[in-house]
Amino acid sequence: MIRWNTLLGFFYLVLCVGKIIRAEAITESITRYYEFNVTQHSINPDCSEHTSPVFLINGQMPGPTITANQGDIIHVLIRNKLSEVDTHHHDVAIHFHGIRQYGSNHADGVPFLTQLPIRPGQEFVQEFRVINQAGTFFYHAHVGLQEETVFGPLIVYESQAANPEILSTESSTNSTEFLPLTAGPFSYHDEHVAILSEWWHRPPIEFENFLMGSKFKFLPEADSVLINGRTMHDTRHATLAKCGGYDVMTVLPNKTYRFRVIGATTFRTLGFAIARHNLTIIEVDGELVKPYTVNQLEVAPGQRFSVLVHTDQVLDDYSIRVVRRWSDDVGRPTNGIAVLQYQQPISRLNHPSLGVGSRGVLRFKRPAMIQPPSIHPVFEKAELEAPYWIWQELEPLYGVDPTVRKPASRTIKLRSVDRHLPDGTTRWQVNGVAYTEEMGSKQQPILYNVLNKTRQLPGRYNTAHTNGYDPNLRTYPLKHFEIVDIVIQTTHMPGEPCRSHPWHTHGHSHWEIANGKGEYTEERDGKIRNINTPILKDITMIYPNVDPDLFTKDGEKVTSPVGCGWSKIRIVADNPGIWAVHCHNTPHMLMGMMVALEEAPELISRP
Ligand code: C2O
Ligand code: CU
Fold it and tell me: Where is the Plastocyanin-like domain positioned along the sequence (predicted)?
């Protein structure tokens, strides 16, 4: 009898423990299903006189937010519902930016490398597990300039403790207290996403034809910079009935928030600041870093940051603003504005306008504003803009990876030069070759041919005289597990402006281990390691860093392009696949500033 009771008690205990575990919802990996329908719409996101026909995912911009916990599987069904046209302009493909796609090269979304573009009327599934990485990512179209409007956030929570979604229904029934979210050693009350993009008063297809054609001279500036898909182009005649207004992010006083800032811009690098609030950087490109406090961020196309913001100011509206950086001849101010709005902490019970957000946190329904708040951030002067920003100061949270101190297997130098071709077009050549989609084959993506063994395997890896390029395969083959240093060299004509270039690595994060001015030479600069604590990231900005000594040679003016800045990045070839590496200034990429790595093709796994 006693034993029977004890046994019951034991079962009861097990049940309770089971319940607690479920409430805290530990680490079961699940599959998250998403459906993306791509359709055409005419939109006017900056409340101007102008509307353009553009492509959207599920009719919205930004597209739906994808969320997952580390270890989950993300399954996205993409349907191309655009009408059939006889050019490639209505083909689509979606890339999940910053996701390394370990063992799932086929889900990387690069047309002609990993898949064929999705034709009108077709559908395509991309499924992948998020392995060993968490933080702030995004997805965007990888065809033409479609990514101007086809993009959205992708958030991977470090663990269930960082996931604001899970307990909301449960908490809504009990208290108004919140459970803080935690990621690594950081805890915060709630989070917001600020995704930055650009908007041209000109349809993307027309813009692309202009870029690639013979009338191209220089890249026209975007008419608006959008935060979460909105801004106001002209507030003079605006009414709330006509306009979405500025995006308003509400906060409670005396709390800590995680802001996820995503550079989904096509072209410009932006400064980002919130009036009267410091930003403590804790994450870059999906890796936690030691907290580092700034008053503004520099956000290049493709880059992401998480910053902690303490709401220690008085109850008011504060503007969130962006300016252009590295913009040479154009002014810095933009119309990119959003609002940080303090809310009075009050009980939900007597305020029906309150909704319950993450983990029981009270969230007000989003108000709309068509006039900017009067308190603006102060940005540093353009003259103080210096190459390398604060990159040197950042440190990985858990210490520097010993791989960055090892010798590299080899160094590949990618030197980009912009060329005006005889047919009047302009192209960016990398080591003499401007990337085009025909690098693959128009019939099958390279990956497909590799898996079907109809593609020749790379014969020789040490292609020193060609800088690692295999002219037959038209890719840069890598051996499994080699440590490869890639020097990204930018150039200009002496006396002409030198441009900044944010380079992105698919399938890998990389460490930037050195950088310098002018032209990199192996003999002189090969040993330089001037970055003390390299962090892992998937975008490295190659800053303009001109060397005037290169402008003349033997007393003569130099009339060919010379180096004007370089960075050396390191990757470990631990992820067999066909991976794009390119400048994330999309016009530059379309004009050829891209290469493909062919990494241990014999080991690529089948979907
Ligand atoms: Cu976000 Cu190939 O890029
Ligand atoms: Cu570029």
Answer: 38-159, 191-344, 443-601
Same domain, 459 and 588: yes
Report percent pLDDT > 70 for the chain: 88
Q: Distance between CA 578 and CA 106 in Å, rounded?
A: 9
Tens of pLDDT, residue by residue over 121-142, are: 999 999 999 999 999 999 999 9
Tens-digit pLDDT profile for residues 392-410: 999 999 999 999 999 999 9
Determine if the pTM surpasses 0.85: yes
Regarding whether 477 and 377 lie in a shared domain, the answer is no
Considering all CA atoms of the chain, what is the largest pairwise distance in Å, rounded to the nearest integer?
105
pLDDT tens digits for range 301-342: 999 999 999 999 999 999 999 999 998 778 899 999 999 999
Instruction: Looking at the structure, tell me whether residues 484 and 448 fall in a common domain.
Output: yes
Distance CA 246, CA 226 (A): 9
Q: Report whether residue 304 contacts ligand 1, using a CB cutoff of 6 Å.
A: no
Q: Tell me how far the alpha carbon of residue 591 lies from the centroid of ligand 2, in angstroms.
A: 9
Q: Alpha-carbon distance 372 to 334, whole Å?
A: 13
Q: Which domain holds residue 275?
A: 23-384
Q: Looking at ligand 1, which atom is closest to the CA of residue 580?
A: 2
182 lies in the same domain as 268: yes
Number of domains in the chain: 2
